[in-house]
Amino acid sequence: MNKPKNILGCVAKHTPPEGIREYVSRNPADFKDYLDEISAETKYLSNISRLVKKEWSRCKEQNQEFCRLQGMLQMKMWISKMSKLEVQRKT
Q: Which domain of life does this protein belong to (predicted)?
């Protein structure tokens, strides 16, 4: 007979830790807002990743070194922008 595995405080049957269950039961609307925020952020990062990959494949045919540096610069700018948005959201 297999026993459920305990991983980081969660049983393998996707039972959240006690603290999370208590929080969700007290504030379901707040938790939904939190999940919506994470979902939007994940979608945003996925779009950035997709655009960078698309740009990189297009640049492969041209001057590779210039495009590599340009891609790195764009990625750093996007990361900086995300960091600023995160700070604004927390305040």
A: Eukaryota
